[in-house]
Structures are given as C-alpha cells and as structure tokens.
Amino acid sequence: MTTLTADQIARVKATAPVLAEYGTTITKHFYKRMFANHPELKNVFNQAHQQSGSQPEALARAVYAYAANIDNLGALGGAVAHIAHKHASLNIRAEHYPIVGENLLAAISEVLGDAADQPTLDAWAAAYGQLAGILIGAEQKLYDGAPWSGFRPFVVVRKEMESDEITSFYLKPSDGGKVCDFAPGQYVSVKRFVQAVGVDQPRQYSLSDAPNGQWLRISVKRERPVERPAGYVSNGLHDDVVAGSVVEVSAPMGEFSLDRSKTTPVVLMSAGVGITPMVSMLASLTGEGSARQVAFVHACRNGGVHAFRHWLNEIVARHPNVSRTVFYESPRAADRQGVDFDFDGRMAWAKFVSLALLPDADYYVCGPLAFMREQVAALHAAGIRAERIHTEIFGSGMLD
Fold first, then answer.
1. 78-128, pLDDT tens digit by residue?
2. Reading across the β-sheet that carries 199-206, which strands appear in turn?
3. Max Cα separation, the chain?
4. Which of 139, 162, 374, 392 is catalytic?
5. Could you say which residues bind FAD here (predicted)?
6. Which of the listed residues 179, 218, 251, 321 has the most CB atoms within 10 Å of its CB?
7. Among the residues of the chain, which ranges form H helices?
8. b/e per residue 368-385 (b: at least 16 CB within 10 A)
9. Which of 97, 128, 170, 232 is catalytic?
C-alpha cells in the first residue's frame, strides 16, 4: 500500500478548503469524463443518481472527508467499511481503481487549472493510491467470504403486494442451489437491463425476511414519477417481473445488521420503505425465540402504504417481549376504524420515549434522509451513545 510523505499529507490536507468549494464541480466533470472514456462503466454506476446529481455530490463529500482526515485515517473507518460493502455488492474490482484514479486526477487538474500544481497532483496521486489499496483490501475480504462471486441468476418464485406501494419478490437460485445465510439488515444488488438508458443497472434492496434457507426476499417500493422520475429498476420490477422471471442478484452485503450475539434490548425505528431491514431483524429475533425486549417504531403516510402491518400486529400479539408504535402522518378516515396505528403526525420521540428509551439497547434507524437526521439527533439528545446507534441510508445520501 502507498505510504505518503509528510509533504504529500500536508499538500492533500491543504486542498480540503478548495474541495469544499469546488468538489461537486470536480466530481461532475470526473463522471462525465470517465463515462466518455469508459462507457462500459455505465453498467456499474446508478445513472439515475448521475442525472439527479446525488452521486457526484456524495463523492465530493467523500473526497473532502478523505482530504480533511488524511492525517487521521482512523476517523474514516466506518466510511471505509460502508463503501467497501457497497462496492462489493456492485462487483467493483481492483481493475476498476486505476480507471477511476486516472479520470479523477485529470478532473482535478482540468477544473482547478493552475491552482493545482504538479507537486499537489502528485500528492493526490499518492493519496488515491493509498485509499485504493485500503478499499481493495477491504473488498477482497468481503469477496473471499461471500457465498458466490458477481451476479447470480435467481428465479422469482412468488410476487406479493405488501401495500399500495411496496411489493415483495421471493427469489430462489435458478440453478437449484442452496439459499445462502445472511445477517439480518443486509442487502443484495439486483441487476436489470433498463431500456431508457440502454445499459444494465444495479440497485440495492434490503432483504426483508429472516434467513430461512428457502428463499431470499426483497420488498421494493414503486417510485412515483412526480417524485423520482428515474425509478428505473424498482418500477421495472413492479411492472415487468412476474413469477418465473429471472433476475441477476449479488451476494448479501452491508455492515448495517443485527448483532445476534447480544441479549440486550433492541429498538427498530423506520419510516416508509425503511421498514424492510427492520422486518428482517424482527423476524429473525422472533423466529429464534429470542427473549430480548424489542420496540418496533414505524412511520408512514397512512394505512394504504403501511407495509407488513398485519404481520407486525400478529408478531406483537404472539410475543409479549415485542412492542409496536406506529405513526400515520396523514391517516385516512378508514384508518381510524382499525387498530394499525397509534399516533397521528410525524414520528415524535416524546410520544414513545417511555417504550424506546431502554437500558443498554441498540437503536437501528432506517428511512428517508431527513427522517434519519431527525431521529439520530433525538437519540443523541436523549443521551444515547453513538456506538449504540446504527443507521442505513438508501441511495447515495449521507447523514453528515
């Protein structure tokens, strides 16, 4: 692995303020340049996130964080693990890194011009080599431990609506092989050809059932065009995939997962389709007969989009160690006739603190970015230590 000199470290760190100002301009130019030189990589990168600008923005933040912490890489440990799992799920390999490095360094030079002299560019080349070595090593360990390499064909054996927006797909290996184990909370990538962009596109979906040796289940939200015009793969799964269809699936990855070795309480907090990894965690705990105290807290718009509500009610009825708190932001008249939710409005910590502020509990949080930030801030304000708060963000966003 590349070792940086003190001068190289100082030069990279000195560019952090410049990256804070021009980072997104650099990363947008980088992606444009790389795809022009290597159009085959469009199959790897989410083109919807390219169109929205979220991927260049996320990369700009990551590059800035690396520059700012170049002299304290230990601070990036969690970020490295997160990126490594994402990359391994997308089958990014060591041979991709020189391509990325060449185009990223060229983009820095072309955007900054004379502001980036040759010694600074050389320092960044060394810094990129260091980071690439760290990620390649972390990803290789994940590949070595994975049940298969790359993408594997799975047949959809069942398709089931969970709400007005979310549909579950039950997947089995098309070769009749074994269904792998995984850690509850992990995800897989599903790859489909998207006619609108003319390339294969991978998307990551949380596994939404306990490991059972029979199938892998993903539960996918249909993206409404007025909100997210892209939704290429998710809407394609809803519209075009039926029982008997074959999809390409990566091995399970993700560091956001239930620690099954503990016996302390668990609080599962979700909003919208963020419920999917929480269902996997709760199903695993109850399926194993765990006596751990579990508080399941969920928020959604109304009963029409409340996925897994009947399943959750049955779980709570059968397991006295499991509690349920559900918020409907805009309940319908019909919702008020049932027993599927507890509070009107957005999730508010003060309304369920007596159930969720549990001694020594681990808090798992998943949902839209604004929801995540709000709930994590509430947990910190309540005195929950950072190491007991676990988060998963769908897409290319970042909590901070």
1. 888 999 999 999 999 999 999 999 999 999 999 998 888 999 999 999 999
2. 199-206, 187-194, 246-250, 151-161, 166-173, 216-221
3. 70
4. 139
5. 187, 203-206
6. 218
7. 6-14, 16-37, 47-52, 54-68, 77-89, 96-112, 118-145, 232-240, 275-287, 309-318, 349-356, 369-381
8. beebbbbbbebbeeeebe
9. 97
- The label of the residue with tokens 């089931």 reads 160
Nearest Cα neighbor of 102 from 38, 24, 173, 179 is 38
Q: Is the pLDDT of residue 225 over 80?
A: no
Structural domains of the chain sorted by starting position, each given as residue range(s) with its CATH number in brackets:
6-145 (1.10.490.10), 151-250 (2.40.30.10), 266-392 (3.40.50.80)
> What are the binding residues for FAD?
187, 203-206
Most confident listed range (49-53, 69-73, 298-302, 393-397): 298-302
CA-nearest of 271, 262, 269 to 355 is 269
Can you say whether residue 101 is alpha, beta or left, with left for phi > 0 and alpha for psi between -120 and 50 degrees? alpha
Contact criterion met (CB below 8 Å) for 219 and 273:
yes
Judge residue 121's burial from the number of C-beta atoms within 10 Å of its C-beta, 0-12 exposed, 13-18 middle, 19 or more buried: middle
How crowded is residue 204: how many other Cβ atoms within 10 Å of its Cβ?
Answer: 21
Q: Which amino acid is at 209?
A: D
* Binding site members: 87, 187, 203-206, 272-277
| Owner of token pair 């980071």 | 131
**Whether the predicted model's global pTM rises above the 0.90 cut:** yes
Q: Is 97 a catalytic residue?
A: yes
Distance between alpha carbon 297 and the CA centroid of its chain, in Å?
A: 20
Type of residue found at 349: W
Q: Does the annotation count 139 as an active-site position?
A: yes
CA angle, corner 388, sides to 387 and 393, nearest 5? 85
What's the token pair of residue 103? 């185009």
Residues 6 or more apart whose CB falls under 8 angstroms from that of 41 comprise 34, 35, 96, 99
